[in-house]
Fold:
Amino acid sequence: MICCSLHFECTRMDLISFLKNNLFMQNLAARMISAVPCVVEHNIEKYKAIKKAMYLTALEQLPGDYLEFGVFTGSSFVFAMHIHRKLQYLSKHPTKFYGFDSFEGFGEVQEVDTHPFYTNDTFRVDANKVISNIKKQGRGCQIELVKGYFDESIKGRSASSMGIEKSRVIFIDCDLKAPSAVALEFIKPTLQQGTILIMDDFYSYKGDPSLGVCGAFEDFNRSFTNVEWRRIFDYGYGGAAFILARAEP
Ligand SMILES: C[S@@+](CC[C@H](N)C(=O)[O-])C[C@H]1O[C@@H](n2cnc3c(N)ncnc32)[C@H](O)[C@@H]1O
Structure:
């Protein structure tokens, strides 16, 4: 043991002295890491967050569906279907994949959601192209894509009227407080002990917990009396994931 740690110390000292004498190494690392675009780094972490949630819920044999609010080009949605296929050997329950998006961006941004980056044109896409790619990539999966602004497509509608009884993994990725609040209200009856809720951009709006996705989640939790969420991890550039540890009876 002592021998081992001495050896480790030696190699660490060797490495430190090598680095001191070869500053090009630190320059190279700085150049390489800064060359990776932040959005790429964040999206890789987003995939890993979905992978963890799908794995953990498969291990628990949690029934229910995957619900994504904010699909955009479908990158995270397609990833969720791919990882589900890989993990199917672990879980006997079928999972349907529901995606909700206007595919036209945010629509009119409410004053409370004003933000320098979340502006209406940022997320307009060719819906037909995205939908057909999702269907192609998700061959063998049950998929339902609901196109429209949440105020029109899900507000005031019950999840069960769309065939959603229980949620396994929910991914809220619509950036703003107003649509996140509509999505959370919609999923409320589908929650069960073990549902994993992933929220992107949880620390936006300079970290103000009353704004953005976090603000919607805080308000949502005030409507419960006997529910316990446990944070299971943070990911990427400001995402957070929670598990419903105790659901209201
Ligand atoms: C950050 S993108 C989603 C990214 C996607 N999950 C991914 O990782 O590839 C946010 C999406 O939320 C959608 N969105 C935001 N507000 C919405 C609303 N009120 N109704 C419908 N869709 C909305 C936008 O159209 C946009 O496509």
Summary: Residues 38-59 form the longest helix (22 residues).
